[in-house]
Amino acid sequence: MTSLVLPGDLPDFAEIAASDGALRRFLHGLPGVDQVGVERRVDALASRSIKQQSKRWALDTAIRMTDLTTLEGADSPGRIRSLCAKAVRPDPSDPDIPAVAAVCVYPDRVAIAVEAVRGSSVKVASVATAFPSGRTSLDIKLADTRLAVEAGADEIDMVIDRGAFLAGDYAKVAAEIAAVRQVCHDAAPDAPAHLKVILETGELMTYDNVRRASWLALIAGADVIKTSTGKVSPAATPAVTLVMLQAVRDFADLTGQVRGVKAAGGIRTAKDAIRYLVLVHEIAGPRWLDPDYFRFGASSLLNDLLLQRAKQIHGVYWNPDRIPID
Amino acid sequence: MTRLDVRKTYKLFIGGAFPRSESGRTYVIARNGTFVANAARASRKDVRDAVRAARTAQPSWAAATAYNRGQVIYRVAEMLEARRDQFISEVAGAEGLDHRDASSNVDAAIDRWVWYAGWTDKIAQVAGNLNPVAGPYFNLSGPEPTGVVGALAPQQSSLLGFIDVVAPIIVTGNSVVAVASQDRPLAAVMLAEVLATSDIPPGVVNILTGHIDELAPVIASHQDVNAIDLTGYAGQDTTELEVAAAGNLKRVLPAPATEASHVALPDGPRRILAFCETKTVWHPKGW
Amino acid sequence: MDSEKATRPSGHGPQPEATVPDMITPTWDYAPAPEARDVIDLGRDWRMFIGGDFVEAAAGDRFPSVNPATEEVLAEVPLATEVDVDRAVAAATSALPTWQATPGHERGKYLYRIARLLQERAREFAVLETLDNGKPIRETRDVDIPLAAAHFFYHAGWADKLDWAGMGPSPRPIGVAGQIIPWNFPLLMLSWKIAPALACGNTVVIKPAETTPLTALLFAEVCQQADLPAGVVNIVTGAGQTGSAIVDHPGVDKIAFTGSTAVGKGIQRAVAGSGKRVTLELGGKAANIIFDDAAIDQAVEGIVDGIFFNQGHVCCAGSRLLIQENVHDLVVDKLTTRLATLKVGDPLDKNTDLGAINSAVQLERIRSLTDTGETEGADRWELDCELPERGFWFRPTVFTNVAVNARIAREEIFGPVLSVMTFRTPQEAIAKANNTPYGLSAGIWTEKGSRILKVADQLRAGVVWANTFNRFDPTSPFGGYKESGFGREGGRHGLSAYLQPSQSAHPEQPERSAAPEAQA
Predict the structure, then answer these.
(1) Contact, C318 vs C470, CB < 8 A?
(2) Half-sphere exposure of B213 (CA within 13 A, CB side)
(3) Which of A8, A85, B54, C224 gets the most CB atoms within 10 Å of its CB?
(4) Share above pLDDT 90 across residues of chain C, in percent, rounded to a whole number
(5) B235: nearest CA in chain C?
(6) In whole angstroms, how far apart are CA C44 and each of C48, C74, C214?
(7) Nearest CA in chain B to C283
(8) A157 belongs to the catalytic site
(9) Per residue in A24-62, pLDDT tens?
(10) What count of Cα atoms within 13 Å lies in the side-chain half-sphere of residue A238?
């Protein structure tokens, strides 16, 4: 029996999330996902052709949806400032180019980033909760989150406990998400940090798991569900993103609440990005073609978006050396 | 004083019962000008009843396991073996054979049941395929019975020929409405008695006696018959029957140019497959 | 920064009806992305292909082939009469001994060549097929043409392995095959017919459909480029009368037909008593069964694939949707949401999902049948979309609350029209699915494995797609039960349509062995 009910049959998610049994029954009652069917659909959508004005719009939208990311042990203050400068003004030679959505950094680099993007529309996102593995105590995860939010992070990218999820300990996963969300609010009561929940789909292995983890995160209070840390392969794929987009679409149908999706890791070309936008448009709908509801987590993607944008504008294939690299 | 023997009344075999023709008609079976018996002369309504019985019986016969169908058909051989002498005498009389030839004919008939009994659980392995499609799909093709088959049995070979036509039809789970040799129908009616006392479910084999020219067009045009075997019209023009069969796109096994001897084993399961459909099932392979 | 934070959606985001933030108003649109049509030369002299030569009809008559998307006349092609068919059969007959005697591995190499040539010229064939048929370039490019090439590649390999085809040792070809194909998959149906026939050593006279003759004539050029011996493949163009001339021709040993059940019955009648062997691939009214535990999102895709692929011009289309009653509303809701994203229009546009209806005649048939849908009380939903002014177009249409006895639930519509019914138990689903004179295909959607196998067992259909729909492959036998015809195309089973046992194996069997396809 499916529990993916029609609008109007709204389950009491608070009650479900509070009980391990209820949560399990709900998640395992979701309709299955057929791998071959999903991948066929993705392949069909990949052949959609975006041209002319729409392509230009798509490239700009992709830029506005980008969380320009650096998550390296070697991230120095200078590197962070350089990244932020590029986030605010991707190519100073063309003022029409929009800023990216956010920069995404480690918690101890948030303060530098906040300073560097001040006055712009660019937000500062921070990974947290013992990114990327999530393997530490809840206290430390919450402290990690608090560090980032108190340093001024607008958005928190947390990881779920995949070990607990795969062990079937859904209530534990939900409780952690709720606790991190509480810190996002408590540490910045006037403007709570936005919570993105990383499912690390590359470790979940099946689309059924991706669907369950998506709903679990949405029920537990995620503002955005995010595919990957970028540290595990495979990272984002069109197919897992499709399954996650179906989850936010169905969740919106059910609750009236619009949540977002972030595809992160492995998206390097403008062509890839546009294919993701096609998915967003076809699966979730035009409402999600908005940086509030769809993001790319990427480092090198922006360069190719700029390159292709230049090609669109100038009508000739562009020289990569004219694009400032970060 | 010699004892007066008790003669048999030869009737039809429909749905496991032995009715007279609903028309009340019979016709004389004679040998060398001597009266042998009155056989029931089936009518179009008897065809109708037989098809209805066959249709009713077919799904559960097809749903039986192949092992089960094999044992049931093998049981027919057992029952036939037990009445071997009786059939030798009938075949010898009907076909004008000496005792030796009639014996080998009946032995072949018994063995033919055994041969077909063994096919029930082999045919899908021989005629089925795993198809390596270019994609992440499991794809399997296998034979299934076509449904209700009308069979016109050979005119010369009264027992072996009849079995050679009927047995392959029922191997896979079809049911059959068989018209026995017009002039030599008694062996078929005796076989009905064997079938009735074996475990063949009622209605799986239905046997009509009568005039083939009267019955064949009714079967050929019957919209609830899936296929027709024209073997009984060896060497004759069957155009009209084939035209009638097209009314519901029957599978047609055409009449041979001459009636085969039937004594040799078939060289393959061709007759079984003539009344099979191939079903192909696809399923994705994924996590 | 702080002020932005204040306006930023917090918590669980705004309600869906909130206005879209107007940074740049979304102008998402799949701008026209037409495939270039200059890869083909429509102005060429279109002729039939008989005995290796491109020829006019003896009587000199021609008929036009129209682009159904624009109603423009694309080309005029010869109208073959009995005289031309006779010439073609004579050519096929005289080519037969040599072709039959050609070693299998050499015959196979011709087929490999043809497969490669089709791949090399795939773009050209795809564009021409789309122009002539009206189907979207996405389908001709991704399905029709690649599959056509695959059929030749697959059967090429059989040519020297026929001893293992299940017909016993040294099986023989049947002779001259007369082949008549429909307009819904012109080149693909041609390949389904020609590839196995040639692999088995037969020669062919083939007639493409009246409304879609062009890719067949282009294929003739491929035969020439492959150096296929003259007369092995003969292509005549025309309509029903030309087809009848093939069926009735005494020099034809085997008829292979794909098309309507009514015409199929006519062919079976026409060849009665002639000893010609026949395979028929006819109509359907397939049930697509959705159980409540299905992977609903993929089931919805399967429903779309099932009935809107190729504008529903598919004999095996899933035109009857049987939904378990307890998920009916959910499935219909998701289905209509999904259908709203379908793009109907210019078939040459790479983003088009549904192209044109193939002909005015077919459009009229679809219209009249769908009109009965409403008068019989079903609820009609159709896609709200712009249709081009010229050409033959029909909106994707879904009927719900369809009575089981409604015409739209019984008759093959052969268009983008879905009839939705409900069921409560698996037994009821099977009974409803089988309650049709047809038996070509069926679909099952459930995540429960044992249910799939049980239902698949009980469906009276030649192809059962479980958790998928409308998949085709050269290795996979295709064909119907009951009034959907007989014989199989594709796979090992399909070979028996073009082979007979060696003569020595059946000394008592007559030459006119018109046996149904014994498949082993």
Answers:
(1) yes
(2) 3
(3) B54
(4) 88
(5) C510
(6) 13, 11, 11
(7) B249
(8) yes
(9) 999 999 999 999 999 999 999 998 888 777 888 999 999
(10) 24
